[in-house]
Amino acid sequence: MSDEPIRVLLADDHPIYRDGLAVLLGSIPGIDVAGTAATGLEAVERAAALQPDIVVMDVAMPGLDGIEATRRVVADSPHIGVLMLTMSEEDATLFEAMRAGARGYLLKGANQAEIVRAIQAVAHGEAIFGPSVARRVAEYFSGPATRPDDTTFPQLTPREREILALIAAGRSNPQIAAALFLSPKTVRNNVSNIFAKLHVANRAEAILRARDAGLGR
Predict the structure, then answer these.
(1) Do both 10 and 62 map to the same domain?
(2) CA distances from 82 to 11, 12, 51, 78, 158 (A)
(3) CA 182 to chain centre
(4) Cα–chain-centroid distance for residue 106?
(5) What is the extent of the structural domain holding 203?
(6) Against a cut of 0.70, is the pTM above it?
(7) Residue spans of alpha helices (H) in 62-172
(8) Are residues 14 and 95 in the same domain?
(9) Are residues 205 and 98 part of one domain?
(10) CA distance linking residue 59 with residue 205, whole number of Å
(11) Is 44 within the bounds of a domain?
(12) Residue 123 to residues 30, 153, 162: CA-CA distances in angstroms?
């Protein structure tokens, strides 16, 4: 990186948090807050117009969520680094954000030093996770394989296998809907299809079948 300040776009739908973070980062030498956005769509548009080095992106925003906004920003401008700063601790949200192209993931409980360090790391092309997130990532990849693949319940679609894994992990339908950014109705329909395809009568039987196959542990 050159001696030029790191230009940052902040995207968050909570004005108090967004404006407070803008003031905080604006006081840090070497960081220039180029602009802010209140929605996912605005984040995409402002990223295209301002061409910042980094977009600090919330996940849950009205209209277009932060993960889809990240996907669009990275597709339009691959050189822009996206750092997720969110309340969501869901593993599914974390990995979906990474698949969308985010280079970092911090929880909103992170302190000023952690946020600044993450921005600097992403600006230098590194991947960065907050301490608690990094620990879960390490556990995920070092533990036994529990992710559903095409050989686990092949009669299910990839989405149904993903939902079954969350059912086996003890997640409720509303929690699954939030983690996968699906409507409650879509989750209910998928759960019904899963029960029918597995020939189980209820959630408890589905959990037993899934855990026997290694999911949800």
Answers:
(1) yes
(2) 10, 13, 12, 10, 27
(3) 14
(4) 10
(5) 158-212
(6) no
(7) 66-76, 91-100, 112-123, 131-142, 158-168
(8) yes
(9) no
(10) 33
(11) yes
(12) 11, 41, 32
In a domain, 110, yes or no: yes
Q: Contact 91/118 with Cβ under 8 angstroms?
A: no
CB atoms within 10 A of CB 192: 10
Edge-first strand order for the sheet with 54-57 is: 31-37, 6-11, 54-57, 81-86, 104-107, 128-129
Amino acid at 205: E
> Are 101 and 34 found together in one domain?
yes
Series of mean pLDDT values for 10-residue runs along the chain (217 residues): 85 94 94 96 97 95 91 93 87 79 88 91 84 62 51 84 86 83 88 93 87 76
The CATH number of whichever domain residue 20 belongs to comes to 3.40.50.2300
The residue with tokens 């989405």 is 159
Confidence at residue 86, expressed as pLDDT on a 0 to 100 scale:
87
